[in-house]
Amino acid sequence: MPSLPLQVAVVCSSNQNRSMEAHHILSKRGFNVRSFGTGSHVKLPGPAPNKPNIYDFRTTYDQMYNDLIKKDKDFYTKNGILHMLDRNKRIKPGPERFQNCKEPFDLILTCEERVYDQVVEELNSREQETCQPVHVVNVDIQDNYEEATLGAFLICELCQCIQHTDDMDDEIDELLQEFEEKSGKAFLHTVCFY
Question: Where is the major localization of this protein (predicted)?
Fold first, then answer.
């Protein structure tokens, strides 16, 4: 088993639902975890599918929460957005963009293929400094509350299994294959270097 805890990042598009639910579960289980989004802006559902609420990544969860209360407290309570933002602001002040983080991780988990591609592209565009490997794994998770919760538990179970391996680099492919069979989900995996 690795002597140091895994440095884990969880990434979705807006750092709101899927990555934050996994961040919440992983931190409760004692993992050293950070969460991020890769989008150019933070998008939250609005009153119509073509009218999302769009925020800058510098906007705190508390500011988003207060803005939505002013816009339509009942609507955003019923659709669960205020509850989600309340959870988020208890975990960290606001969303973070993966592209702005230079901290190294052992494992980066993404929640959809487009985000996986963006993370890999970002890591490959950086100048290699330490040649420290980072495993990037995609777990496709639909962007709704139920799937975010189920996906977070799957991510947590995967992290626990990886944490208990003797050699993550040597054993991760076999572990991912086991998880694919068990979950019925396909996992993308690549190794990048810092």
Answer: nucleus
Direct distance between the N- and C-terminal alpha carbons of the chain, in angstroms, rounded to an integer: 23
With bands split at pLDDT 50, 70 and 90, how would you rate the model's confidence at 5? Answer: confident
- Let me know: does 97 contact 38? Beta carbons within 8 Å: yes
Predicted TM-score (pTM) of the model is: 0.96
d(CA 36, CA 182): 27
Handedness of CA 54, 65, 86, 81 (dihedral sign): negative
Listed in sequence order, the residues at least 6 apart from 186 whose beta carbon sits closer than 8 Å to its beta carbon are 140, 180
> Which residues sit opposite 36 in a β-bridge?
11
DSSP single-letter state for residue 127: P
Mean pLDDT score across all residues of the chain: 96
